[in-house]
Amino acid sequence: MPLGQRVGDNSESRYCGVEVSFDDDIHTVLADNLAGGFDFVLAPLIDPKYRPSRSSLSPNDVPPFAGSDLVLSPAQWSSRVVGKISSWIDLDSGNELIRKDSEITLKQELAWATHLSLQACILPTPAPFCFSNYARTVNQMLPGLSNMQLWLRVPLVSPDLQEAEGTPNEDAVFLRRDSVSGRPVSDSWEWWNVFRMLCEHHSHLSVVLDITASLPSAWAIQRWLGEPVKAAILHTSAFLTNKKGYPCLSKRHQNLISTLFEHSVQIAVSGSSFHNLDQMELEPSNLVHANGSAGVASRHPLKLYLEYLSHLYRKLPPISEQERFELGYRDFLQAPLQPLMDNLEAQTYETFEKDTMKYIQYQRAVHAALLDRVPDSDASTTVTVLMVVGAGRGPLVRASLQVSAKPFIDVY
Predict the structure, then answer these.
(1) CA atoms 16, 19, 20, 26: torsion sign
(2) Which residues hold S-adenosyl-L-methionine (predicted)?
(3) Alpha carbon 144 to chain centroid distance?
């Protein structure tokens, strides 16, 4: 069930998932986690032990997938399951057999995911700056995936940085470079940036972030907010324990999760529980089964982590009218209009005028242009005619007139 209700928020961030291990009874796995309060699962599509070169299957046999396509309804596969591509896959391995097995398995799993009508599949984390063949193969397959998205799994803080530096401080910017390639091995954003360029910035390629106990600098986090981050996997190892023995997050982690919620990013919990439910007094759960029973929900090992995320979500301030209006326009390039050729409706102009920042920037630009055009020595004698071409319903004219309130500018 959703983490909570927030006025005006109909985004996917209301729904929380959980990462599960491989199980050939996907129906039971999904049912148990839905009963525990989660909304979807991140589940492997095939037995991780499977290798095409070692398999006794004939070419016409079916690989060991996680259950038949009939064990769940198409709606359940589409809305409740995010597929996980096998993490052992390494298309840039120095071992030719591993490379071949990896490519075959990747194509088999994506073909199976397409057949199941999954909305998204998670690609395994690439090796730092050693993924040219991996990216090539993904780029070849992206055009044929129709409606399915691929989420590249990328750590928020790279493992080599965590091992070498410990927990990063808040203000540091880590650009430790590889001695051979010269690239910043610690900057996982660089991995993503190179990978997506090799995939020609395909619109079906997005990011899922791994969040652990270590966080990068505030600057590095802000940079990720400009990327197509669809989900974040929050590991239970990132949680602390409060005075009452319940899981909680550090202030920086709380701010990060709240920011991701506000950017319509879904959260999925991963890992084992570090808080023993049997040893603490359980409060009445707000996570109930569809039949109204709280019994199954209260026994889920990750229940307390889910309730804490629900608490963070419910603490978010209501969405303002301006933000509510902008939600449908986020991350989309708008089609250019031709106001001089077409007669636009008043509603179209009203939509444009809700973008207040555009007019603030326009006013600043006019002010800077006028100051630059006329030197201070001639300001008292020079008359500048300002023409607003294509003024719409007048907000551009008002912004230009407001320049007169600035020093050294007179508008008559």
Answers:
(1) positive
(2) 349, 358-359
(3) 23
What fold does the segment set 12-329 form as a domain?
TIM Barrel (3.20.20)
Q: Whole-angstrom Cα distance, residue 35 to residue 27?
A: 12
DSSP state for residue 120 in the 8-state scheme: E
Q: What is the DSSP letter of 193?
A: H
Q: Are 360 and 400 in contact (CB under 8 A)?
A: no
CA atoms within 13 A on the CB side of 124: 20
Buried b (16+ CB within 10 A) or exposed e, 47-75: eeebbeeeeeeeeeeebebbbeeeebeee
Q: Is the dihedral of CA 394, 387, 410, 370 positive or negative?
A: positive
At residue 106, φ and ψ (nearest 5 deg) are -60, -45
Residues 145-156: tens digit of each pLDDT:
888 999 999 999
Q: Provide mean pLDDT across the span 339-344.
A: 71
**204 in Cβ contact with 150 (< 8 Å):** yes
Query: Terminus-to-terminus CA distance in the chain, angstroms?
Result: 61
Could you tell me the pLDDT band of residue 273, with boundaries at 50, 70 and 90? Answer: confident
14 pLDDT above the threshold of 80: yes
- Looking at residue 58, its amino acid is S
- Which residues are annotated as part of the binding site? 349, 358-359
Residue 70 sits at φ, ψ, to 5 deg, of -95, -10
Q: pLDDT band for 391, please (50, 70, 90 cuts).
A: confident
Residues 6+ apart with CB under 8 A from 231: 17, 82, 151, 208, 209, 265, 266, 267, 268
* Residue 20: Cβ-neighbour burial (10 angstroms; 0-12, 13-18, 19+): buried
- Of the two residues 401 and 206, the one the predictor is more confident about is 206
- Residue 382's CB is within 10 A of a number of other CB atoms, namely 10
Where does the chain hold its CATH 3.20.20.150 domain(s)? 12-329
CA 392 – CA 352 distance, rounded (Å): 10
Provide the annotated binding site for S-adenosyl-L-methionine: 349, 358-359
Predicted TM-score of the model (pTM): 0.78
Whether 299 and 244 have beta carbons less than 8 Å apart is answered as no
Structure tokens at 302: 């990750």
Q: Compute the distance between CA of residue 61 and CA of residue 321 in angstroms, rounded to an integer.
A: 56
For the cut 50, the answer to whether the pLDDT of residue 412 exceeds it is yes
